[in-house]
Design brief:
Helix content: 40-55%
Largest sheet: 5 strands, parallel
Number of strands: 5
Order of helices and strands: EHEHHHHEEHHHEH
Strand order of the largest sheet: 2-3-1-4-5
Shape: globular
Radius of gyration: 18 Å
């Protein structure tokens, strides 16, 4: 299975690009969605988190209070590392299984943390959706209705744009119109299909 790692900064349009690949019948594995699945009741990781941080980390229905957990781990590096050591192996294993289960000619692993985690090792190629900083700011402020300072802080905490670009095998420029985005995805889809058929670029085993 040829696995394409899809990543990009906040507001870059990763989800839109993923949807365009899905229109071609390509399976998209969403790492963000999986990260939520592994802490849903009755997953063992949820109980481990409650035991470590206390039952107050759960709401009345026994579900994770995500905002409360986020505050705890981002204010304490040791706690964040504990949580990552618990969750990342579980997330990676579930991603591996989804890759194995995929039946499309190739699949997309969409992850905002692709370059910061071991998820990168699961992919054969890295596709970066790139936009300017100002485009990131405007799109995210409009989408999330968040103040500019909040979005700037999120951008500052992410992998720098130049690092993503240097790591990319392929780049989609999403600063333009929707029609231009579609053309780029169509061209890459044709390219990935060819690679999947010939086996080129598919050095990763799952």
């Amino acid at each position: 299975m040829l696995v394409i790692g899809l990543t990009g900064g906040i507001g870059s349009g990763k989800s839109t690009v993923a949807e365009l690949f899905q229109r071609h019948g390509i399976d998209v594995i969403d790492a963000d969605l999986i990260s939520r699945e592994v802490v849903e009741p009755p997953e063992p990781a949820l109980q481990a988190i409650a035991t470590h941080f206390g039952q107050q980390i759960l709401d009345e229905e026994g579900r994770l209070r995500r905002s409360a957990l986020r505050k705890l781990v981002f204010s304490d590096q040791a706690q964040r590392q504990w949580l990552e050591q618990l969750l990342h192996p579980l997330i990676n294993e579930r991603i591996r299984q989804r890759i194995i289960d995929s039946r499309s000619p190739y699949c997309i692993l969409m992850s905002p943390l692709l370059l910061e985690t071991h998820q990168r090792a699961l992919t054969a190629r890295i596709l970066v959706v790139d936009v300017s900083r100002e485009t990131q700011l405007q799109r995210t402020m409009r989408r999330d209705e968040s103040p500019r300072a909040t979005i700037e802080a999120i951008i500052a905490a992410q992998v720098p744009r130049e690092v993503r670009i240097s790591a990319a095998d392929d780049i989609i420029d999403n600063n333009g119109e929707a029609s231009e985005l579609i053309e780029q995805v169509d061209a890459l889809h044709a390219r990935y299909l060819s690679m999947a058929v010939t086996g080129r670029g598919n050095e990763v085993t799952t």
